[in-house]
Amino acid sequence: MTPFLRLALVVILTFGGLAQAAPKKTAKKAAEPVIKAAPVATRPVVAVADRAAIWHTWTDKEGRKVDAQFCGLSGEFITIQTRDGRTYHFKTDILVPEDVVFARQCLDRSRTNSFSREIIASAAADIDRLVDAVLKANQQARNAPATDEEFLRRIYLDAAGRIPTAKEADAFLASAAPDKRAKLIDDLVFSPGYSMQMFNWMADLLRVKDTFGKGIPAFTFEDWLKTRLAANTPWDKMVFEMVTADGRLCDNGATGFMLFDAEMPLDGVSNLMTTFLGTNMACAQCHDHPLADWTQKDFYQMAAFFGATDGKDEGVLREIQRVAKADSAVNKAAVRKIAEMNAFRLEDGKKQALTLPKDYKYKDGKPGDPVAPALIAWAKADKSLPAYNVSAKDPAALRDEFARWLTSPQNPRFATNIANRIWKKAFGLGVIEPINDIDDLSQASSPELLAHLTFIMKAAKFDLREVQRVIYNSQTYQGQASPTPDLGKAKYLFNGPIVRRLTAEQAWDSLVVTAVGTYADNVLLRRGDDMKVMALPAGKVTMAEVRNAIDRTKKAFAGSGKAAGGKKASGGSTLGLANGYEGDKPVTRFSLLLARASELPQPSAETHFLRLWGQGDRLLADSATNDGSVPQVLQMMNGSVGRLVSDTRAEAVMAAEAAKTPEAQVRSLYLSFLARRPTAAELTAATRSLGEGLAVTDLAWVLANTREFLFIR
Amino acid sequence: MNLPLSADLLRHPEDRRRFLEKCAKFAFGLSVLPAFARLAEAAEQKSAVKATNAGLPGFGKAKHVIFLQLNGGMSHIDTFDPKAGPNKGPGDIVSAKGDMQLTSYLSETAKVSDKITVIRSMTAKVGVHASAAYLMRTGFEQRGSIQHPTLGAWAQHFLGSSHKTLPSSVAVNRSSNHGNGWFPAAYSPLPILNPEDGLLDTKSPVGEAVVGKRAALLAQLDAGFGGKAADENVKAYNEFYETTFQLMKSTDLKAFDLSAEPAATRARYGKSKFGQGCLLARRLVENGVRFVEVAHGGWDMHASLDDRMEDVGGDFDRVFATLIQDLAAKGLLDSTLVVVATEFGRTARLEGGGRGHHPLVFSTVLAGAGVRRGYVHGASDAKGYAPATEGVSPGSLHATIAHAAGLPVQTEIMTPAGRPMEIGNRAKPQLGVFS
């Protein structure tokens, strides 16, 4: 049996068949001016329920008990979810010892549920064979294997989102175990940093933002995403949940993705198609696509699946304003906020009301004509796939029908889109580029490789951790990095990963680790529950309840804004930062809040290191860049960040200071910043400088400012 | 958009060439796209964009643009378009220089109004602050699937960088909000949130001797990775560090330093953030920066309009008049276009001591470069409710500014995603405002 088939077979045996049963939604009544109960309370969370759920009564050291489901264990942190859908994160040390052991067993169970090393190795070898064949056909060869030092830094940045500490680097480099690379990969994809870097990566794709529209806080969406990542929910389940989510944003964070475009639903459809399918339909929104095959009719037929969906409850909005009018003493701005928050929800009505636009100019329809939902296809044969068998009968179920097609393994682009994106994450370049326009698969640098990655994605049932384990274990990934290819001259056939500048988040998280070590891995920001206090209870709207909500909000967000430091600039809500941290509180130095990028405002303020280095504004998907600028360098050399790395309190500096000889100090700093040992020449030069007027702090500054620090090779 | 690898730029050779034309290689913010920069150079040699509007009145006179944005929505009736009758505001109507009428809130502006053009027939459909501000700043209505650039970014695309080391666009008293749109992130205006602080982090916290030693050691230790065989992107960062070290030693950064201005000048502009921001704008323009935005808040006058026109309007009035006089005195007004833009106008009827949002008609101002002096362009009706002459859209205002700045208007370019776009969303420039 080929390893190929073996993988597929094991997958099917382990996880069941490929057919997926998505939960049915029931039709809902039209909008009424009353608040409806939170849907999450009545509907079990799809993703978690789908995997073998582990329910347990957890007991803390003071004897308090809570019945909740195990979601994930990340370092010292446990995530659990109670039956009402709320999630909690805390350090395991508050639990009784038996429960800590139990939590570890839960984690081991999820680790044993993952692919065995043999399967991973075999799937990785398949990638290598495929890449080799393509390279050989083009008279090229794979790059030489990366050194342990190169691999170490690369895998930490890719899988855990930061560079290793000196101690971590030393442990790996000193190890003589033959399987130490595979072992490190497995350790890192189960470390706290894994979820954090996945959050950053997805936040750019899903446009995760602290505030939507007119400043409505959207922290529940962030919490939802973090919880799903902690539970390693498969991508198809996450997407299904986001696209079909119901209810208020304050109750159900999963609504965040769709509500982002609540004011502009047509743009929302176009964005959704790009994000999940890599289909470029933005042009077809207003006219037939000039370069691709999509027509405006195609676009409207797809948009019709969302024609019964409403993002704003005008009834509740009016009702709250009406009861508040009678109360002259209440703060009108506060009322408006509560009203907006409670009206911000997703709901499907009884009628699908989309019509062709006023300026429709094609022969296949007239302006104002109703549009019937219909799915696009990339090839004629697509439409005969069972996934295309959707019903458009019940308007209230249209979104579910669409989502079933969207997330089906049979969807012609869904698996390929995410597989290509995950590949780019590891290699710096997609097999097909641009990654947000993959309609024409023949444009791929290697269509065979793309097809194989798609296969792996489906075989792993969209488990992104497993797919990344496969990729990281390939010799192709573990080869030396290639310089940035000139795609104008030739296709890049993946001789190895390419040299990449650290993403803004990787750079920041790495600087944070040199400053406070692994401490920041256990600083978690969760502000969703604070936001929930703005929700009015189900039932009739009364002024007393509105006032209660205002008071609760005031209390929950008391002291906000001070914690973040720095000046006000576009992006990043400081709301709730003061008390949003669970577990350890972040250290503040030079007005910088030293938490990992995923645990800071989303996105950060415009003048923050993260934004300066290219963190996206999240208004559009894939808005992050790795462009350079002089202000970046100024901040790194002279600004707060330059001071941070060269501060006597910095972990990397203190570790070096503790070393006995200047040579040992230099070695320690090289491990801290570059995850390697210095060459003889470097050691001599750096040691000499320590004797000639430069201190350990200066050397730290120098290493942080090397290009080597900024790049992954 | 991940620039080093934007293969989408490379997909259609024709689009690529057009997009990369005049793509400046070295800007204040250098875009890391060496592979493309080479293409751009090649493209540049072959064809320069020919502006069909070149040679028409006013073309290319504005080497610099100072774009003042009055946030909240300036009431046209209480400023540049006074009305008698029932809709008259609390201010008096005064005859100003240049044969135009203004309100008494603009007494200083009245002294320089022989140097300005007022457009009284501005019209738009957007009455929501953020969306209207976006429209006025970019010339496009806000969409959820694309970000549009500001004129500074358009200019950098067509004309290249305006200075060897200084940025081509600066945003004062406001964030840049990715004003680069679909252009490289390096085209985004440099935000200066506080004019008094100027550009941050230009001085090292350690002494000069240590800076020198650090720099020497850095060069030595980084020679292996950043050396000759380095990746193109690594080399780009090498150049960056080089530029930054030079910049720190050079006098160019003085452009950001308000303390270098005489005390009398600083006092004339007033202590407000807007005043110091406009002074900074003048300094930047004087030193070769092409496009400077300065934001001024507080114009959302739903109530207490009289008081707030005194405060907010008064601050604007003094600063604006000072800026025009100062530019004229320095001989910069002939090459600098000053724009007063806002979000929308305000309702004709006074209600509760203030006015609501009213995009149907409002006023903007142009001054300097080749623009007519002491001129009123277009008119609103007697009530100040709607345009009485053909309306001027924000897109048309953008096309007008672009024309003055020597940019090709009504010329299509292709975005990296393959969408054809024109400055001001295909609107025509108002050629009548040029002398």
Written account of the structure:
The complex is a heterodimer of chains A (713) and B (435). The N terminus of chain A is likely disordered. The longest helix of chain A is centred in the N-terminal third of the chain and has 21 residues. Chain A is α+β, with helices and mostly antiparallel strands. Chain A is globular, with a radius of gyration of 26 Å. Chain A has a domain of 209 residues. Chain A is built from 31 helices and 15 strands. Chain A is 45% helix and 8% strand. In chain A, a hairpin with a 4-residue loop joins strand 3 and strand 4. Chain B has 435 residues and is an alpha/beta fold. Chain B folds into two domains: 312 residues, Alkaline Phosphatase, subunit A; 48 residues. Chain B contains eleven helices and 14 strands. In chain B, the strands form four sheets. In chain B, strands 6-5-7-1-8-11-4-12 form an eight-stranded mixed β-sheet, with helices on both faces. In chain B, strands 2-3 form a two-stranded antiparallel ribbon.
Key attributes of the depicted protein:
A: 713 residues, 3-stranded antiparallel β-sheet, 15 strands, disordered N terminus, B: Alkaline Phosphatase, subunit A, 2 domains, 8-stranded mixed β-sheet, two-stranded antiparallel sheet, 11 helices, globular
Layout: helices, strands, pairs:
The complex is a heterodimer of chains A (713) and B (435).
Chain A (H helix, E strand, L loop, with lengths): L2 H13 L23 H4 L3 H5 L4 E5 L5 E10 L2 E6 L4 E5 L5 H17 L3 H21 L10 H13 L5 H9 L5 H10 L2 H15 L4 E2 L3 E2 L1 H12 L4 H10 L2 E2 L7 H4 L5 H13 L18 H8 L5 E4 L1 H12 L6 H12 E5 L49 H10 L6 H14 L19 H13 L4 H10 L26 E2 L2 H13 L6 E3 L2 H5 L10 H14 L24 E3 L3 E3 L2 E3 L14 H4 L17 H9 L1 H6 L5 H7 L4 H13 L5 H12 L4 H9 L2 H4 E2 L1
Antiparallel strand pairs in A: 1-2, 2-3, 3-4, 5-6, 7-9, 8-9, 10-15, 11-12, 13-14
Helix pairs in contact in A: 1-5, 5-19, 5-20, 6-8, 7-28, 8-20, 9-10, 11-17, 15-16, 18-19, 18-20, 27-28, 28-29, 28-30
Chain B lengths: L12 H8 L13 H13 L17 E7 L22 E4 L3 E4 L5 H4 L3 E7 L6 H10 L12 H9 L9 E4 L17 E3 L15 H14 L10 H18 L13 H7 L3 H14 L4 E6 L8 H25 L6 E6 L3 E2 L10 E2 L3 E7 L6 E3 L16 H11 L8 E2 L5 E2 L14
Parallel strand pairs in B: 1-7, 1-8, 4-12, 5-6, 5-7
Antiparallel strand pairs in B: 2-3, 4-11, 8-11, 9-10, 13-14
